[in-house]
Amino acid sequence: MALRFFRFSHLLGAAAIAALLPLAAAAQDPVPAKQVFGAVTLPSSGAPAPIGSYAKGCLAGGLQMPADGASWQAMRLSRNRRWGTPELLGFLERFSGDAAKLGWGRGILIGDMSQPRGGPMLNGHASHQIGLDADIWFRPMPAKPLSAEARETYPFASMLDKSKFLTVDPQRWTPTHAKLLLKAAAEPEVERIFVNPAIKKKLCDTWTGDRSNLGKIRPMYGHDEHFHIRLKCPPGDKACKPQAAVASGDGCDKSLAWWFTPEPWAKPKPKPDQKPAKPRFTTLADLPKACAAVLAAPAAGGARVDAGGGARPQLRPAKTGLVPQGDVPDAEGGEDQ
Ligand SMILES: [Zn+2]
């Protein structure tokens, strides 16, 4: 039974716009935007809309990915980061079915998506801010459903042999891993996929099928325990700022070879006589103006997801204070480069 994710108009409500005005003063305060967005536990009411860019933006009218589906399980539920646009939820549902058909267990384990109203996060990611990014584990969904408790502690599995420099562990990597990544890359709405440079190299060295979408799979720090799928701005979403298109070709070139040089791993050397730069954090004023309205908007009564089979979205009760964070360090800087 198919989930249906409804999209209404692309406009923010007039009430939300009016609420922007008193926030103008607050936007002057140098409060890190990640603290504000990281404290919100429910989505804004109104139409779903990605606003701004993947690493500097927010999400209006976010929808929550159901914790369970026929071919997916969402993980680390306490992080409250399984929110997205209807396009992302619909994509994950379809892709999870394709993954199961490829032989990827019962389907996929879904990691972080976005916060209820998107925006910067207190830890873990540079992007994931507008409801179009999702992390997928490099472990398939097991046959027996994991309890909510087990989903908090279920261990990640790195694809790397950590005793060597940037090397995929041949004991862990299988042809199905490669098929899964290339299947995702072949989807027209997928903009980029981030994987560890060692994984990209493995694909470059071993993939014998169609390579026309291999260029969408990009090498990045981390991403050895999960891969990161980024969707394009949905057509008609004018507030969504697209990223520059990936260069043509399969990406198995100098840009990949660079990752295997010392340069990306060297600590930046401070220049002599240079004063240490003040740490600069993103404030609300750095984000698109509409993000203040998203923060000020009333909470949605519920995500507009018609699951048809009883898999209702599990909305948390409204409350103040920080959402408990997962304990898994996960570096994803620089994804918007
Ligand atoms: Zn990610």
From TrEMBL:
Residues 1-27 form the signal peptide. Transmembrane segments: none annotated. Residues 302-337 are annotated as: Disordered. Coiled coil: none annotated. GO terms for biological process: proteolysis. GO terms for molecular function: metal ion binding; metallopeptidase activity; serine-type endopeptidase activity. Keywords: Disulfide bond, Hydrolase, Metal-binding, Metalloprotease, Periplasm, Protease, Signal, Zinc. SUPFAM superfamilies: Hedgehog/DD-peptidase. Disulfide bonds join 204-252, 233-240. GO terms for cellular component: outer membrane-bounded periplasmic space. This is Penicillin-insensitive murein endopeptidase. It comes from Xaviernesmea oryzae.
